Amino acid sequence: MASTAAPLTIGLLGAGSVGSQVARTLVEERELISSRVGAPVRLAGVAVRDVEAPRDWRIPGELLTTDAEALVDQVDVVVELLGGLEPAASLIERALRRGAGVVTGNKALLATRGAELAAIAAEADVPLHYEAAVGGAIPILRPIQESLSGDRITKVMGIVNGTTNYILDQMDTTGAAFDDALHEAQRLGYAEADPTADVEGHDAAAKAAILGTLGFHAPFTIDDVHCEGITQVTSSDIEAAAASGYVIKLLAIAERFDGEGAVLRVHPTLLPRTHPLASVRGAFNAVFVVAENAGELMFYGQGAGGLPTSSAVLGDLVSAARSVRTAGAPAELSATDTTMTALPITKATTRYYVDLEVADREGVIAEIARVFADHHVSIEAMRQPGSVSADGEVDTDQDSGAIVQIVTHQAREKALADTVETLKEKEVVRAVSSVLRVEIDQQS
Amino acid sequence: MASTAAPLTIGLLGAGSVGSQVARTLVEERELISSRVGAPVRLAGVAVRDVEAPRDWRIPGELLTTDAEALVDQVDVVVELLGGLEPAASLIERALRRGAGVVTGNKALLATRGAELAAIAAEADVPLHYEAAVGGAIPILRPIQESLSGDRITKVMGIVNGTTNYILDQMDTTGAAFDDALHEAQRLGYAEADPTADVEGHDAAAKAAILGTLGFHAPFTIDDVHCEGITQVTSSDIEAAAASGYVIKLLAIAERFDGEGAVLRVHPTLLPRTHPLASVRGAFNAVFVVAENAGELMFYGQGAGGLPTSSAVLGDLVSAARSVRTAGAPAELSATDTTMTALPITKATTRYYVDLEVADREGVIAEIARVFADHHVSIEAMRQPGSVSADGEVDTDQDSGAIVQIVTHQAREKALADTVETLKEKEVVRAVSSVLRVEIDQQS
């Protein structure tokens, strides 16, 4: 992958919750981002309205400026995180026309003037990326545009607004009324002081327009979207839906009707609790895609928040920087972290599930627990479901051996393996029936 | 997006279940693929061992050849679907060195000589794509390589082998023994006559090496993967796991240990039934990714099969063709299907949930059902959960009105809306308490 040594400059417009995290990563992880681009990158400046305003991450004073145009005119890639139509649109157009790559997360702008900006980018032959505009950290726009570019998408259906999903989830799980759930969301920072754009469905409608445009390769705008919010959803609606096995979600739906066109709609929707989207809880987002060849696909992850969303912005930034500087070919299977080595399984940390047949006598449990303790492996759960006769069949007659099932906490594979070896040597242990590894969800 | 008029030629190596579908799409959907590439494409030939062999789709005789090298030497993009190390490796290298883009789904080759081939592609500055190598139709490698290129992945954990997932799922749901579940899988075509590569975990191990290589930007091979298959998993293991709230899945895991390296492993794993991967059933695949900024992400879809997998191959083909012919910039928000128009919501087909308060008298249900029938809207379910007093509170005292809840089958939104309007005019209908749309999983 060809690359030059001169640093590639980045201009950041806006330093809100997402912008602050993008700035932090570009400063603290400059080496990482440079290695991913294949050329050194440098954050040249951050344009803000007020240089004194408090931020999630303290941006070095020398990087801050109030002159966005001057910044746009001097960098290789512009990252627009101002939101709203203006001055965002003018600054993006200015950047594209002078040949700078642009990364934006501005869904309102894309759902209004996206086709126009894309045409300007195509004419200037520079990248315009906006993965962060839909689904926060979830890679969804690039897969739709590129991975599925050889297929025909028939339907896209997504939970793309975390605020409304949190509110509906609260109403469903706690029986709360809409107003109470909304206030709770505001208290936790999931909803803004003026929640209109979220609860009336406008935010989801902008995303529906973008998903429909990319999914069906036709330029739709937010005006093409039929939009109903969740303010009319009552707790009795949710109760009645639950009674019939449904959950109510605010969905952004883009559906193709062959030979006719597409319908784009946002509205509260009943989903069977068995549907993959039904179990998407709280502030998480998920997008369900149906394509003629691929069939059903689902993409799931964190739909909002400065840190998660910055991941999507930085991924776009790396892509844009690569195509500004190189042929745009990703490094693929060629290594860039040459220090990374493969470790033996003994170095892994995991949990074990151990199923033992032991002599059914006093003190056995203590003796077994001691073996784990000696190897510094802590036990999460220990069960004695029944007992076994000599032929290994479970029975309830206590004059035969007992079964003991143990699940450990995280420990090094080596310690776990050594524990099992010691158990096998114990006279009270008749057999180690099975040893299996356990993975627990990161969040639990 | 710049493009020339001369057709871009495609050479297909192999015409098995995936290759046949790729050939079919390139012939039957030539216009679609060409519009996605931004230049006309033409399938120049299909290299096979036996031109007479029966295939899922009858490839025109004039396209078939047994001379793979001659085909490779005359096309712009080579699609390798032969599988195995040779002659696949030599043919891919030959294509790359003469400047042709290459698309392959050959996980065994990539997990053995991937870094070497990627280096040749980078040196020749031509694309080498292989989305189909992991997760079938699921876009997972491109998101890891590109969407997450500005983040640091810490763990990748996937159900990447449909055969073993089907077998374990059968054992879990029907209590079947391993051998019986395997034979059922073979009968249904989910498992091959010689199931070794699947049940011993070799297929998953190759995918673990590819996921680890892309996720951690370091060149791992299948030899770096600790591999245990599912042949030792017994129905009593699965019973015991279930009793403790776990399900057993064969997972391909790549985990980073900062400052040390990475552990790549494939083995039967206990997962809490609440884990997002636990509900991935049958032949479906899913990959769970954890990154420092993005947090938890999950990608879900069909992991095997000729048709779904061809979607991933064709997506790579479009990308490779774009970068051979253009700057590689995707069309993004600029339209290519200019005929596609936005339709009003009345054109949508959906289902309705209607909650009515009606007079509690004889014949009322029949009268309401008649209204739906008159508008050609068929009723899927009708419930009468209780009755309501004048203040709308549910009570059980039958001298007040009754509640009727109806869920319809799919119908045009217009017919559904008209039905509701007519219901409102009915004297027996006291109130239409709520009208909500319903979406059902495509598969149900």
| Assembly state (oligomeric) | homodimer
Largest interface: A-B, 141 and 142 residues
Would you give the CATH topology of the largest domain in chain A? Dihydrodipicolinate Reductase, domain 2
The DSSP helix count of chain A reads 14
Q: Sheet with the most strands of chain A?
A: 7 strands, antiparallel
Terminal CA distance of chain A reads 41 Å
Poorly predicted ranges of chain A: 327-332
Computed over alpha carbons, the radius of gyration of chain A is: 27 Å
- Number of DSSP strand runs of chain A: 19
Helix content of chain A: 25-40%
Helix-strand category of chain A: alpha/beta
The coarse silhouette of chain A is: globular
Beta content of chain A comes to 25-35%
- The CATH class of the largest domain in chain A turns out to be Alpha Beta
Mean pLDDT across the residues of chain A is 89
CATH architecture of the largest domain in chain A: 2-Layer Sandwich
What count of structural domains of chain A? 3
**Any idea what the CATH superfamily of the largest domain in chain A is called?**
Dihydrodipicolinate Reductase, domain 2
